[in-house]
Amino acid sequence: MRVVCSTGNCRHAARSYIQSVNPLRKLHSKLCRELAQSERSAIVHTRREARRLADTPPARALRALGAHAQAMTPRFAALVAQPHPVGALVGRKVGETFSALRTLLFDRLIDVERSYRGTLLGFHHGLAVGRLLRDVAERLGDREMVAVCEQWLREREALVDVAERELRWFAEMPDQALRSGLRMAFEPASE
User: Which of 15, 92, 156, 162 has CA atoms 20 to 30 A from the CA of 63?
Assistant: First the structure.
């Protein structure tokens, strides 16, 4: 396929075309969007889960994860400040819809412990995306993205480890662990 240039800046047009069909750049772009969606979900779901768990060790671990996601969002946004294709915007809306369904329906039907583990699964997904994004950025020579990903991974892995250790709280508090989100919504908070 030939690159057609009507602006006189044919070199720029050719470079843009090559970047748009380079599979590694496409993967980079996709992973950036996926990690951004994962971080948005992390912020929303950790707040909601932490509210359900009140002032407990698992809730504190989730709040720390949510605060980290909130703090890192501007760094990632600055590195990927490029227009997103329509498909990416649709994907974001689908992600937001699933997040809303989880909040309004699914998490109310399952017990608190299972919902907590589901949130941890989301963090593992984000870690996998971050690792792959780091590797792709490395192959593209994007040292800044590699550095951000490595910092993010170090910090996030440590926070996820803490949250996983807090699973023991559910073993110590089985009555709390088995409470459904729906039942908790209608019960007064314990002092």
Answer: 92
**Predicted TM-score of the model (pTM):** 0.74
Q: What is the CATH number of the domain that holds 70?
A: 1.20.1260.10
Nearest alpha carbon to residue 35 among 87, 110, 103, 88? 88
Scanning the structure block, which residue is given the tokens 């996983």? Answer: 164
Residue 56: HSE in the Cβ half-sphere, 13 Å Cα cutoff: 25
What counts of helices (H) and strands (E) characterise the chain? 10, 0
Measured between alpha carbons, how far apart are the two ends of the chain, in Å?
69
Q: Is 74 domain-assigned?
A: yes
Dump pLDDT digits (tens) for 101-135. 445 545 555 778 988 999 999 999 999 999 999 99
CA separation for the pair 31, 75 (Å, rounded): 15
